[in-house]
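Bug report (template v2)

What were you trying to do?
Predict the complex of my protein with flavin-adenine dinucleotide.

What happened?
Run completed; filing so the output is reviewed.

Input:
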Amino acid sequence: MNISTLLTAGSRTAPAAGRVYLPGDPGYDTARQGFNVSVDQRPAAVGYPETATEVADAVRVAVEHGLRVAVWTTGHNPGPLGDLRDTLLLRTDRMRTVQVDPTARRVRAAAGARWDDVVAAVAPHGLSVLHGSSPTVGVTGYSLGGGIGWYARALGLAAHRITAAQLVLADGTLVRTSDSEHPALIWALRGGGASVGIVTELEFEAFGFDTAYAGRLAWDLSQARKVLPVWAGWAAHAPREVTTSFRLLALPPLPTIPAELRGRRLVMIDGAVLGGDPDAERILAPLRALHPEVDTFTRTPTPALTRLHLDPEEAVPVVTDSLMLHGLPTDAVEAFLAAAGPESASSLLLAEIRQLGGALADPHPERAALSRLSGRFLLFAAGLAVDDAAAAAVERDVARVVAAVQPWGTGRTYLNFVERPSDTATAFTAQAWARLQRLRATYDPRGVLHTPHTAWPR
Ligand SMILES: Cc1cc2nc3c(=O)[nH]c(=O)nc-3n(C[C@H](O)[C@H](O)[C@H](O)COP(=O)(O)OP(=O)(O)OC[C@H]3O[C@@H](n4cnc5c(N)ncnc54)[C@H](O)[C@@H]3O)c2cc1C
């Protein structure tokens, strides 16, 4: 295998018209860097295709030279791919066109579009989409992994709202899939990740609302023991119109963070209610009765919701872990607070519990590889790994929080929140996993597609 011949010396003659960076090229180190800068991967080459045809050409050339092919939209979740030394990494950064059909309420987004690209495109039509908490996360990676955002308990997983896709298969063929064209492929894309091909264009539903009753409630961290038990009980029975997240936060003193929150250790509940103001106020009343120091819940234009969660938009070194929970009874609340609460001396930036249930729990086994999220809550813990000592402390504290609530774990993973190699099978039912493996064997028998996580047959 001679990559230099294959991709002809860095960036001048690429397998596609877009640039290619080889180890040693100026720009290679930037090209191989994802959003999580604590992940250090050295692909055989990094390419920036600009069209679906270039993606297909790149796959064919990689196969001829014995390379595998991985794809990033933004590099928000590089860890699960593991070692990339035998892999051509395709970055879709230059494929960001978004088209909207307001009458049909359909969006067609090129593979590299971020959620803020799509939100900006649909907003003038009075429409909203099922984005997540970060404006800079990629639409394709997020949707193929499931996708839980502020409307999730009302409208379900983003993956279930994919209506069609154009993708390049492992043999370089470009195909379109929908419920009537290669339906097995769209089934796999709905939550099955990059298992059957490289998406070059995704089509999905938009929704006819442009405001939500949304915002944040915040208390000093010392109030965690007062707030969490109430939220846990409320969240378990709240109507599906509302989706919230509970977080213990140590916010950095950054100018991008609102002044009243900047640099503080806080309890925060944020989220959105789809419905009228009186209903929303009634739903949120038990939380407001806890007298938050900050309460920004109000009627809000939906584009503002991409930044409600204050997610970082610049690359950061993070260590994370997650766990799906079947419930959050009093013992689980106590265990979580002991591991991450005010007296825990936690080094974490955040210990978050997202509210699941509602439409997320409705099963769609014929529609999607990821039929449903069976858990009621999703734990996510993260810290900044700015140096080796910080990384070790964060690893320890993340593991402590996950271990504390492990007795309430469902045994299922949500792969979008798993940022290290894991057993892919744990995300799916046994039937869905068997079907995904059969599709892999049919569409990628040689294991050309370098997919995240470890359990795919090679
Ligand atoms: C700050 C932050 C906030 C987040 N918020 C949420 C949230 O609110 N809800 C939620 O559900 N998740 C959330 N996530 C998780 C996020 O959905 C996953 O990290 C997702 O994988 C990111 O997709 P990406 O394309 O941006 O990342 P990438 O690292 O570029 O891609 C991740 C994986 O997606 C697949 N993929 C990407 N592009 C393609 C393609 N063109 N064809 C086929 N497969 C492809 C590949 O397997 C790739 O390895 C968040 C992550 C971060 C870092």
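What did the reviewer find?
Residues 34-35, 71-78, 81, 92, 111, 132-134, 137-138, 140-142, 144-149, 193-194, 198-199, 311, 416, 451-452 surround flavin-adenine dinucleotide (CB under 6 Å). The domain at 98-208 is CATH 3.30.465.10 (Uridine Diphospho-n-acetylenolpyruvylglucosamine Reductase; domain 3).
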